[in-house]
Specification:
By secondary structure, the protein is of the alpha+beta class. The protein is built from 20 helices and eleven strands.
């Protein structure tokens, strides 16, 4: 009898809390009636429809969103507005100051540029704008060339064997080395065991973050922390945070190095890093803490790693499938005058690889590493047709659907670099494609990513001809977690080109 009473009281409390929530948010509930929604249930909402394998997550999203341009999902008691039309997404991105990631990466990446509130974000943006300025990018090109040359050498043992290798792992290691060197002045190899642990932690937490998104019961911060401890993933969090913390403390404890950060010498690579810019801010403002610096570093390293690696892997796979396009890119590359080691200048990368640039942008459109971006509205936002998005609304913008919109791209399911020739680009509205976001909180590292991928492709294609056993990349061959991946990986056969 007592147990029955407890259950009854619990149900009554839930109902009263629901009524109170509706009374306090009467305006929001009124505005939500403008949007369609699938059937919801108390406590669990309706996001349960996305449960299941990662392999089918993208297809589920396409199926449930297909009839609607705007749709409200309920993550338990929390409403989430999903948008997939370009003009709606542009409006939201232009009028939302806060980028809300519902705390998915907070336990390991902390609070920094990606998920900070508006005030802290402005501070982060001012600092990191310098890190991705034209002058700093010019310095990073030296590392791009160096790491790309190292990648060419790593591929020599598998070249001319007729064996296909999954290029993704090669790209992840190369890109992590470049990001670590440009951000902290270190490499995986020079960091020894700490570098290896950092590398493994990145791979572990990418999977963990994807699992959290797909498991509504893990969205609670404290439940997720318990999950991390029970599964042992908490060790990966410690390994991820240890390396940047160690580097920062070494910089802070070395006066000779610290003094260099105020004025960056042209011949000192270790001082020409994001750590240097963060240390300068730290000395100027004591409130800018060591933990804040660590979080800023991690939020540059972690997102940049998988996005550049996936883009380069997909690009090589598409060039291996489309031999005629690979030949055009190769001919464009060999027309460049380069040093004996194949190093390219910033002018080469910016102005003389136009067709390669089109191939990269088309790859980003079809296989965007980021399929959604999220915002939290700080005020009511009217859309173009007069429909009003409530204040404090969690909004998910599906970049994936914009990139496949037939109104924006003729034959959108075909990989075709001509989607990005000068004439077609001029005919599309501003903000397409949206791979790096749009508006004030767009991705700060877009030029870095594209420039690095260009350098890698120039080095690889100058040395190797690419082929693959895959005839085409079908839409049903894609799966999604935090990004879109190919179920069969990225198998490439390398054959050395004649000098």
């Amino acid at each position: 009898m007592n147990r029955i009473l407890v259950v009854v009281y619990f149900i009554i409390i839930i109902i009263l809390m629901k009524i109170l929530h509706r009374m306090r948010n009467k305006r929001m509930y009124q505005l939500l009636k403008q949007f369609p929604s699938y059937r919801t249930y108390p406590l669990i909402g309706n996001a349960y429809i996305f449960l299941g394998s990662f392999d089918g997550l993208l297809q589920k999203a396409e199926r449930y969103l297909k009839p609607y341009d705007r749709l409200v999902f309920w993550l338990g008691p929390t409403p989430c507005l999903s948008l997939k039309k370009h003009e709606d997404i542009v409006t939201i991105l232009n009028h939302s100051q806060n980028r809300d990631m519902i705390g998915v990466t907070d336990p390991w990446l902390g609070t920094g540029l990606l998920n900070a509130g508006y005030k802290d974000w402005r501070t982060s943006r001012r600092i990191l704008n310098q890190a991705f300025s034209s002058d700093m990018l010019l310095k990073y090109v030296e590392v791009f060339n160096e790491k790309s040359s190292e990648l060419v050498e790593k591929l020599r043992p598998v070249a001319n064997t007729g064996t296909a290798v999954d290029i993704m792992e090669y790209m992840m290691e190369t890109n992590l080395n470049a990001i670590l060197e440009n951000s902290m002045g270190v490499s995986i190899q020079s960091s020894g065991e700490n570098g290896e642990n950092f590398w493994k932690a990145v791979l572990t937490l990418i999977h963990s973050g994807a699992k959290r998104i797909q498991s509504p019961w893990l969205l609670s911060y404290y439940v997720y922390l318990i999950y991390l401890k029970i599964t042992g993933v908490i060790k990966a969090v410690h390994h991820l945070q240890f390396l940047p913390t160690k580097i920062l403390r070494e910089r802070m404890n070395t006066n000779s190095q610290a003094s260099q950060f105020m004025e960056i010498p042209a011949d000192d690579r270790s001082s020409r890093t994001i750590v240097g810019l963060l240390m300068k801010k730290y000395r100027e403002e004591p409130d800018f803490t060591e933990i804040r610096m660590r979080d800023e570093l991690l939020q540059v390293i972690f997102p940049g790693l998988e996005t550049t690696s996936l883009t380069a892997s997909y690009l090589m796979l598409m060039l291996a499938i489309h031999q005629d396009i690979q030949q055009k890119v190769y001919e464009e590359i060999i027309r460049l005058e380069v040093d004996n080691d194949g190093s390219l200048s910033m002018d080469d990368l910016n102005n003389h690889l136009k067709y390669l640039d089109q191939c990269i942008k088309e790859t980003l459109r079809m296989y965007s590493p980021v399929i959604i971006t999220t915002r939290r509205t700080h005020k009511e936002v009217p859309l173009k047709d007069g429909v009003i998005v409530p204040a404090n609304m969690f909004v998910v913008a599906f970049i994936h659907f914009v990139n496949y919109d037939p109104e924006l791209y003729e034959n959108p399911f075909k990989w075709d670099p001509e989607h990005f020739n000068d004439q077609t680009v001029e005919c599309r509205p501003k903000g397409t494609p949206m791979n790096f976001g749009f508006g004030p909180r767009s991705c700060i590292g877009s030029r870095y990513a594209i420039t690095f991928v260009k350098a890698q492709m120039a080095h690889i294609l100058r040395n190797y001809h690419l082929s693959t056993n895959i005839k085409e990349v079908r839409h049903e061959d894609l799966k999604s977690d935090l990004s879109i991946k190919h179920k069969l990986g990225y198998p490439i056969i390398f054959n050395s080109r004649k000098k």
